[in-house]
C-alpha cells in the first residue's frame, strides 16, 4: 500500500465522532454492533471527503482504539437526526429551548441483534419526552416499526404517546415517547424504568433504567394561583390555577356544565398558544378540568386572553381547490383567509407555503389536506417559519407524486368551531 499524505484536519474531523473519557480504564473492548457502526460511519466520512483514502479506515480504527475510549453518546448524537426537532412538527407552535433543558443520557440495551437506545430526555413537572433510536443491520426488516414499551416510576405505569418514523442506514427506526404523570408531579430527580417488549414485528426484551433530572425545568416553572370566577353564558367557571413550564402551559378550571367549552388562548402579543390535551373528572355538581397547551412563546408574558368555543358536532363537506394556478386565495368566512403562495417539490415530498390572515392562524393552517385523483386523503405536517411569526407556514406532505394532480381541501373555521367572541376574557399572570 502506498503512503498517503493525510491532512490532519481530516483526522480531527473523524475523531469528532469519539469522546475521550480519561477516567475510564483504557483496556476495553467494543461490542461488535458498535464496532460495525463506527467502521461504517468512518467509511462514509472518508469516501465523502476523499475517495483516495479507502485504505485509511483500518488505520483510523486502530488509532481510535489506541488513543481513547469510545463514548457511545458521541455516535448516537452524530448519526441520529435531531429527533426532538420533530416535536416542533408534532406540536407546531411549541417553542421549547431544547438545548437548555435536554439531558443527554445515551443508555441502550441489545437483544436479537438489535439495539434500542435512548439518547435524549427532557422533563418538567408532569411530562417526560425521550428520544430513541433503533440500530441494527439494515436488512433486519422486522425491526422497522412502532416500538412497544412499558414505562414505570416507583412501580407505577406511566401514560404514553409516541411519534416515530423510519431511519436510514444503520438506524432502523427513531422516535419520541411522551410520558404523562396522571396524578401529582414528578420529583426533581427520579428513576424511569423502560421495558421494550417489541420493535416492529421483532419480539424481545430491551430494559433500561434511566435517571431523570428536571431541576432546571423546575427552577423555570411558574405557578399562578388565580381563583377567579367567570360567567360564560349559562356556565359559571373558576380559573383556579395556571402553571407555565419550559415544556407546557397547564390551566386548571372548574365549571358547572361538564366541560361544554374549550378555549383558544393568546399571549399579550396576540400569539395563539396551541391546545394539546385535556384531563378531567366530575361529580354531580362540578367538572374539574386541566387544559394543556404548548409552552409560552415569551416566558415574560403578563396576561393570557381566553376565547371560548364549542366544537361543531356535524361538520359539512370540505371545500376543494385546484392548486395549478398560484397564488390561490381561500376564504375563511369570518375568520379571514389563507393565501397559497408557492409549491416546492422534492422527490416524493411537497411543501406548500401559505400565509394565514385570521384570529387562529395556526389552527387554520393545520386544517389543510390534499386529495388525489382517487379521492384519497393525504395529511401533512405544519411548520411555522419562526416563533415571532404565526401567519406564514409551510405544510409538508410526504409520499406524494408529482405526476398526480392534487387538490387542496379545507374547511372554514366556523364549520368546525363555534367561537364565542362576546365571552372573551383576560387573566393576569401575577
TrEMBL record:
This one is known as: DUF4179 domain-containing protein
Q: Which UniProt keywords apply?
A: Membrane, Transmembrane, Transmembrane helix
Q: Is-annotated flag, keyword Transmembrane?
A: yes
Task: Check the record and name the InterPro entries matching this protein.
Answer: DUF4179, DUF5643
**Could you tell me which residue ranges the DUF4179 domain spans?**
49-134
Q: What is the lineage of its organism?
A: Bacteria, Bacillati, Bacillota, Clostridia, Eubacteriales
Q: Which residues form the DUF5643 domain?
A: 221-328
Q: Spell out where the chain crosses the membrane.
A: 53-70
UniProt keyword annotation of Cell membrane present: no
Q: Name one Pfam family in it.
A: DUF4179
